[in-house]
Design goal:
- The complex is a heterodimer of chains A (115) and B (109).
- Chain A has 115 residues and is mainly beta.
- Helix content of chain A is 0%, strand content 50%.
- In chain A, strands 2, 4, 5, 6, 9, 10 and 11 form a seven-stranded mixed sheet that branches.
- Chain B is mostly beta strands.
- Chain B has no helices and nine strands.
- Chain B is globular, with a radius of gyration of 13 Å.
- The model of chain B has no long low-confidence stretch (mean pLDDT 93).
- Classes of the chains: A mainly beta (115), B mainly beta (109).
- Chains A and B meet through strand 4, strand 5, strand 9 and strand 10 of A and strand 3 and strand 4 of B.
C-alpha cells in the first residue's frame, strides 16, 4: 500500500490564488521530507527539504516566500504556492524516507494548473 | 552529489532483456545507488538499490562493478507495462536526491 499520501491529486485555480498541497507519511515518522517540481517532458527538480520543527532548506533559485513549507508534525508537510500564476503550473511531488540511505517513498504527485 | 549520465532513450520489444547503464564517476564512498521508475503523471517508484556487486529482487537485477563508477539495471523479459522513465541516483546520507534526465524506455509489441 501507499507509504506517502499526497493531496490533492490535481487542482485547477485562478491566477492569484494560493494553493496548499499536503504530503503525509503513513507508515513511519518522517523528520525530513522533500518537495520536487516536474515540468512536462523534464526530470524532477528538487525545490526544498522540509525539516520537522524547523525551517525548510530551499534549493538555489526557489523563492521561499513563494513556496511556503510547513512541517509541523512527523507525518505531515505542506507546500503552499502563494499567489500562483500560470508559470507555476506544474507537477509537484513530495517524498520521504525512513532513514538515511534507505530508498525514498514518493507521493503520487499533485497536478497544479493555474488559469 | 555525484552527477549521473544515462542514455536519454532506449527501445526494446516485449520479452527481451533490457540493460540500462548509468555512469556516476564521482560517487562518494558512502553513497548507495538507487534506481527508480516513473510512469506519466505519477511519482517515482523504487525499483532496486545496491552498494556493490550484484543485487537481485523480484523485478530487476543491479550490477555494480568494483570501482562503483557505473551501474547497470537489468530488466528481464520486459512487457509493454515497463514503458517508463528510469532514473539512477546515488543517495547521500541526507536523503537528498538530485535527479538526472533519466532513460525513457519504450517497449514495443
Amino acid at each position: 500500500g501507499a507509504v506517502v499520501s499526497q493531496h490533492p491529486s490535481w487542482v485547477i485555480c485562478k491566477s492569484g490564488t494560493s494553493v496548499k498541497i499536503e504530503c503525509r507519511s503513513l507508515d513511519f515518522q518522517a523528520t525530513t521530507m522533500f518537495w520536487y517540481r516536474q515540468f512536462p517532458k523534464q526530470s524532477l527538480m528538487l525545490m526544498a527539504t522540509s525539516n520537522e520543527g524547523s525551517k525548510a532548506t530551499y534549493e538555489q533559485g526557489v523563492e521561499k516566500d513563494k513556496f511556503l513549507i510547513n512541517h509541523a508534525s512527523l507525518t505531515l508537510s505542506t507546500l503552499t504556492v502563494t499567489s500562483a500564476h500560470p508559470e507555476d503550473s506544474s507537477f509537484y511531488i513530495c517524498s520521504t524516507t525512513g532513514s538515511s540511505n534507505q530508498p525514498q517513498h514518493f507521493g503520487d504527485g499533485t497536478r497544479l494548473s493555474i488559469l | 552529489l555525484a552527477k549521473t549520465t544515462q542514455p536519454i532513450s532506449m527501445d526494446s520489444y516485449e520479452g527481451q532483456e533490457v540493460n540500462i547503464t548509468c555512469s556516476h564517476n564521482n560517487i562518494a564512498t558512502n553513497d548507495y545507488i538507487t534506481w527508480y521508475q516513473q510512469f506519466p503523471s505519477q511519482g517515482p517508484r523504487f525499483i532496486i538499490q545496491g552498494y556493490k556487486t550484484k543485487v537481485t529482487n523480484e523485478v530487476a537485477s543491479l550490477f555494480i562493478p568494483a570501482d562503483r563508477k557505473s551501474s547497470t539495471l537489468s530488466l528481464p523479459r520486459v512487457s509493454l507495462s515497463d514503458t517508463a522513465v528510469y532514473y539512477c541516483l546515488p543517495s547521500e546520507n541526507t536523503g537528498k536526491l538530485i535527479f538526472g534526465q533519466g532513460t525513457t524506455l519504450q517497449v514495443k509489441p
